[in-house]
Amino acid sequence: MSIRITASTPEETETFGARLARVVPRHLTSALIVHLTGDLGAGKTTLARGFLKQLGHEGTVKSPTYTLFETYELPDLSVVHLDLYRLQEPSELDALGLRDMDRPRTVWLVEWPDRGAGRLPAADLSVALEAGESAHVLTAVAHSKVGAAWLAEVG
Predict the structure, then answer these.
(1) Confidence bin at 132 (pLDDT 50/70/90)
(2) Dihedral of CA 134/111/54/148: which sign?
(3) Which domains does the chain have, with CATH numbers?
(4) How many Cα atoms are found within 13 Å in the side-chain-facing hemisphere of 90?
């Protein structure tokens, strides 16, 4: 299952993030893993911002490039936003204690997941963001039963 949309503005990318958040599965036995891929400036953090705002986060959302991850404790869910761009080796993830964050009612939004290959849980959903001249193309693909059910709800 997959969904492909065109976003002409950053607001449209945020709106897609909000669409995902509106129907995020709530009854999970482990974390829900979302991989966000795309070049610099493709809109990965913009999508994460829309996702978090929809879930009730009122503060700023910036890419955790230097801290590697930021956690958001929201009324219904916890969200772990990771940006692995600066990782030199996937083994650097071991010291972050991410295993402790693989728990029910938690969503991981992982930017640059390829940099953590072999150390991250498998994705339930991936969203590829491609920057074009006048618009970005966002393609969401399910990689698990939970991811497929989620995308079916998105529409």
Answers:
(1) confident
(2) positive
(3) 2-154 (3.40.50.300)
(4) 10
Residue in this structure with the two tokens 């503005």, named with its chain if needed: 9
Q: Which one, of 116, 61, 62, 108, lies nearest residue 86 by Cα?
A: 116
Report the DSSP pairing between strands 136-142 and 125-131: antiparallel
Q: Answer yes or no: are the C-beta atoms of 100 and 94 closer than 8 Å.
A: no
The 10s digit of each residue's pLDDT in 73-124 is: 998 899 999 999 988 888 888 888 777 788 889 999 999 999 999 899 999 9
Q: 86 with 65: CB under 8 angstroms?
A: yes
Residue-wise pLDDT tens digits, 12-51: 999 999 999 999 988 888 899 999 999 988 899 999 999 9
pLDDT at position 76 is 84
Instruction: Find all residues with CB under 8 Å of 95, minimum gap 6, and list them.
Output: none
